[in-house]
């Protein structure tokens, strides 16, 4: 969605509200498409003493799979966004300012970037998720599995000494 900001460019105190749905269903994160529902975006651009400030929020439900136990779960995503907008940059090194294109800002690009950068690389159904047993694949959240613990290979020499003593 392109938002025309020309009416408020030189009018301090003026603002333009916005609200739209952003379709991110095509985004693939490590083989998973978490955005099954559109992202609801809302906010406003306000002219504060000839400085355009965009404030808004992107909200959606994510359909994820736990990285430890592989169970599907849903989690709400809320991404607040605040940035400055400008027609041109005085210094070319400021990454925090979004440039306007003929007095318009591309809100799809601003909010898509914010949502992608806010995504976690690890998704857990719960902080204390125990995951799956590495040997038998049992869900350790349901209780302990029947596997015997494997001895630490770093203590193999000590185990041999203890075996010799018992003989």
Report what the structure shows.
With 167 residues, the chain is of the alpha+beta class. It is built from 2 helices and 7 strands. The strands form 2 sheets. It has a 5-stranded mixed beta sheet with strand order 2-3-4-5-6, with helices on one face. A two-stranded antiparallel sheet has the order 1-7.
Rg, Cα atoms, Å: 26 Å
For the report, how would you describe the main beta sheet?
Answer: 5 strands, mixed
Question: Can you give the mean pLDDT?
Answer: 88
Q: State the end-to-end CA separation.
A: 79 Å
Catalogue the unreliable spans: none
Main structural class: alpha+beta
Instruction: Count all strands and give the number.
Output: 7
Strand adjacency order, main sheet: 2-3-4-5-6
- Helix fraction by DSSP (H/I, runs of at least 4): 10-25%
Strand proportion, as a percent range, falls in 25-35%
What is the string of helix and strand elements? EEEEEEEHH
The helix count comes to 2
Q: What would the principal axes of the Cα set say about the shape?
A: elongated
Topology:
Layout: E1 2-4, E2 15-22, E3 39-48, E4 51-65, E5 72-86, E6 97-99, E7 104-106, H1 107-118, H2 156-166
Parallel strand pairs: 5-6
Antiparallel strand pairs: 1-7, 2-3, 3-4, 4-5
What is shown here, in short?
With 167 residues, the chain is α+β, with helices and mostly antiparallel strands. It has helices spanning 107-118, 156-166, and strands at 2-4, 15-22, 39-48, 51-65, 72-86, 97-99, 104-106.
């Amino acid at each position: 969605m392109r938002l025309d900001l020309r009416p408020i460019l030189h009018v301090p105190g003026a603002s333009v509200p916005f609200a739209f749905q952003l379709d991110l269903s095509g985004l693939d994160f490590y083989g998973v498409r978490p955005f099954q529902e559109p992202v609801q975006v809302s906010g406003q651009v306000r002219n504060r003493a000839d400085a355009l400030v965009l404030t808004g929020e992107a909200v959606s439900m994510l359909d994820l799979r736990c990285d430890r136990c592989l169970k599907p779960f849903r989690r709400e995503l809320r991404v607040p966004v605040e940035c400055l907008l400008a027609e041109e940059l005085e210094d070319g090194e400021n990454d925090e300012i979004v440039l306007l294109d003929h007095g318009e800002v591309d809100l799809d690009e601003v909010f898509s970037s914010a949502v992608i950068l806010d995504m976690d690389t690890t998704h857990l159904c719960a902080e204390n998720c125990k995951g799956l047993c590495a040997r038998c694949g049992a869900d350790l959240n349901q209780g302990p599995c029947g596997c015997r613990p494997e001895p630490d290979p770093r203590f193999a020499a000590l185990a041999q000494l203890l075996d010799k003593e018992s003989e």
